[in-house]
Design brief:
- The protein is an alpha+beta fold.
- Among the domains are: about 100 residues, T-fold, CATH 1.10.3980.10; about 120 residues, T-fold (Roll).
- The chain has 8 helices and 17 strands.
- A hairpin with a 2-residue loop joins strand 11 and strand 12.
């Protein structure tokens, strides 16, 4: 958006809000990315809402490990062969690499073989969909060794990736930006618990986002007030299954190759983007809580941890959002 258009649009917005009229708001919820997505468009059309869901569907079609024709599935089975992918997939890989560096390896999207071995090989929403990886796949893989040349991606043989949570957060980022770039005043995009706010809320006072109590999902432990950015909650209480060796969940510890063992039940992170918040949240299940909460503000984020007793632990800057 040019500065001239931005100034003009601001003038129109001010005139409408001062008159007491609120801009048109459209909201819809649909199944998406292994759960549900809710998109709210402020100051846009219902057709724009439909286009936003179509973009979200495109992200899922490109990144799902349970869809054999997806870019991610094709890359995982390429056995080191260069593969041309969509620009959206290149962006996903870039976010994965950034998140891995930022968390000093806590976030590692190459642990797919360990996740499959632990028992998460089929989609939870469609049991007919199964993740297929080659016999050469190892965990961890060589994330740093993935090379990108334009739209051509080469992954080292044995390396596989899983879009997982970072895919949900990034998809919400992409869809939210698409909505405002298309002329809407604002958007709130929620993808299976990852919430991204862009632009204006219906009342221009920001968005209020409830943080679910994992011990009582019908209640909230806090309300986050956000003008822009993202709120992401990762939980070890969801995506769980039972094996001969006991209960397992989808949050894999890169140090052990097994489900992370932690008293922390949920980790909520507020950050500038959904992708960033997702990658930062994983460290909350792997690090000492005090260390983790002291570290988050140093990387531009705030956080809230809830342990098995329901106790809430927060970063010092959490009060800026609640």
């Amino acid at each position: 958006m040019s500065s001239i258009r931005s100034i003009a649009q601001s003038a129109v917005e001010a005139a409408i809000f001062s008159s007491g009229d609120a801009p048109a708001t459209h909201t819809e919820t649909r199944p998406s990315m292994g759960g549900h997505a809710t998109i709210t468009v402020v100051g846009g059309t219902r057709d724009l809402l439909s286009r936003a869901f179509a973009l979200l569907d495109e992200c899922e079609a490109l990144w799902s490990r349970f869809i054999g024709s997806s870019d991610v599935s094709i890359l995982n089975n390429a056995e080191g062969t260069p593969t041309v992918v969509a620009a959206l997939t290149v962006r996903l890989i870039e976010e994965m690499k950034l998140g891995n560096i930022l968390t000093n390896g806590d976030f590692d999207p190459t642990l797919l073989p360990a996740l499959v071995s632990a028992g998460y090989s089929k989609s939870v929403v469609n049991r007919d969909r199964k993740c297929i990886i080659p016999a050469s796949a190892t965990a961890p893989g060589n994330l740093a060794g993935i090379s990108v040349d334009g739209l051509s991606v080469t992954m080292p043989r044995g390396t596989t990736i899983d879009s997982g949570g970072v895919g949900k957060g990034l998809a919400a980022d992409i869809v939210g930006q698409f909505i405002v770039d298309a002329g809407a005043w604002g958007a709130l995009v929620e993808v299976s618990g990852d919430v991204v706010a862009v632009g204006l809320s219906p009342d221009r006072r920001g968005w209020c986002i409830g943080i679910e109590n994992p011990l009582d999902p019908a209640s909230h432990v806090d309300i986050v007030r956000l003008s822009s950015g993202a709120v992401v909650t990762s939980s070890q209480r969801k995506r769980r299954w039972t094996t001969a060796h006991g209960a397992r969940h989808h949050l894999i510890d890169p140090r052990t190759g097994d489900s992370a063992v932690s008293d922390i039940q949920t980790v909520t992170v507020v950050a500038a983007s959904g992708a960033r918040a997702e990658t930062l949240s994983k460290s909350g299940f792997l690090r000492n809580p005090d260390e983790y909460l002291a570290w988050l503000p140093t990387v531009g984020a705030a956080g809230l941890l809830i342990d098995a007793n329901g106790a809430c632990l927060t970063t010092e800057n959490w009060k800026d959002y609640s």
